[in-house]
Amino acid sequence: MGSTVVVLQGDLTAARTDVIVNAANEHLVHGGGVAAALARVGGEEFVKDSERWVSEHGPVRPGQAAITSGGGLPARWVVHVVGPRYREGQDNETLLRQAVRAALDAAKELGATTVAMPAISTGVFGYPLDPAASVIVTESLRWAEAHPAILSQIRLVAYDDRTADALRLALERQE
Fold this sequence. Notes:
Strand order of the largest sheet: 1-6-5-2-4-3
Helix content: 40-55%
Number of domains: 1
Distance between the termini: 17 Å
CATH class: Alpha Beta
Number of helices: 4
CATH superfamily: Leucine Aminopeptidase, subunit E, domain 1
């Protein structure tokens, strides 16, 4: 049986899953958006694991994933990926695809079966929601098709109605 990609609306920090994906910055400084919410719930252990990862490996590069414990989160691991800061003239789509793939590849390497992923780059990084939703959904489906029976479920988790609607519409267009 292959992976199922689903859209859920709710609080990513409450996702009972093997892996929660963090839409991070290069230095894993959890100052805003999804990262700040994860740090609030994940607590000191989560923050210290993030600092330790950067100290040992350097900044997280595009297409790379950093893996830390979930700390106080209900997930065992957090996979941190850096999506693009949306800019005219750069290949935003490729950079976002790389971030989604890196997150799912890391989950596979961990032996995870379920992943909860936010709408990477659509917050403070300024990626327009509808095109980002299309890229995230398309890449998640491609990854699931290329890796059958690895993850049972890829949950695209939206905090608000607008994001949930954009992800659902992108998923419906692919089915």
